[in-house]
Write a structure and sequence with these properties.
Distance between the termini: 38 Å
Number of strands: 5
Mean pLDDT: 86
CATH topology of the largest domain: DNA polymerase, domain 1
Order of helices and strands: EEEEEHHHHHHHHH
Number of domains: 3
CATH superfamily of the largest domain: 5' to 3' exonuclease, C-terminal subdomain
Helix content: 40-55%
Radius of gyration: 17 Å
Low-confidence stretches: 139-150
Structural class: alpha+beta
Strand order of the largest sheet: 3-2-1-4-5
Shape: globular
Number of helices: 9
CATH class of the largest domain: Mainly Alpha
Strand content: 15-25%
Length: 200
């Protein structure tokens, strides 16, 4: 079982990052790959190893709290790793914990693949068991880029939202609003997720 990997992030895609450590490039799926930046500097990624009969996957997180919430989510019947990543990608895990504690099914069903039955199961399984994680989460401010920044970051964010399970129709509804903002890819991801959650 892995706890974390330290290495240089050599590749960032809409679904995963590659961390080079010891001459090996580790492919690691993350909620929002763009919180990591390609750099020769050593970065720490907290790891969850997911083993299936036909494949082994590594999921990576910026903090231990984020990883532990991921593990709690995939313990719920009806939530797989991809669904848990989509929930965590909102960038506001504290809101998810609040919704579970308040039994707010309407909020939880806004995430891709979470219907009323799964939302109810999340509440039944996790209510009262997440408070120890709450203080580990904080909402970071968005990083504004110069007006001249090209929109490649916006397109990357749109691809990442699609990888999380949002439909092209849903993404196209929020894209015009995002196009008016000057953010980096991580910022577009967070703003896009917030808009998607409001529109459902």
């Amino acid at each position: 079982m892995y706890d974390y990997i330290k290495g240089a992030v050599t590749r960032v895609t809409p679904e995963y990052v590659t961390v080079e450590q010891g001459g090996i490039g580790w492919l690691i799926y993350t909620p929002n790959p763009y919180v990591f930046h390609s750099s020769e500097e050593t970065q720490q990624v907290f790891i969850h190893q997911h083993i299936r009969e036909d494949a082994h996957f590594l999921f990576g997180f910026k903090s231990i709290e984020q990883r532990e919430l991921f593990r709690k989510l995939i313990s719920v019947s009806g939530i797989g790793p991809k669904g848990a990543l989509a929930i965590l990608a909102s960038g506001q895990p504290s809101h998810v914990i609040d919704a579970i504690e308040r039994e707010d099914e309407a909020f939880l069903t806004k995430f891709p693949g979470v219907g009323k039955k799964t939302a109810r199961q999340m509440i039944l399984d996790l209510k009262g068991k997440l408070k120890d994680l709450y203080e580990g989460f904080g909402d970071a401010p968005e990083r504004i880029l110069p007006e001249q920044q090209e929109r490649a970051e916006l397109e990357e964010a749109m691809l990442a939202l699609g990888a999380l399970g949002y439909s092209e129709r849903e993404i196209n509804k929020v894209k015009p609003q995002l196009a008016e903002m000057d953010l980096d890819t991580e910022g577009y991801m967070k703003q896009g997720l917030q808009l998607l959650l409001k529109k459902k």
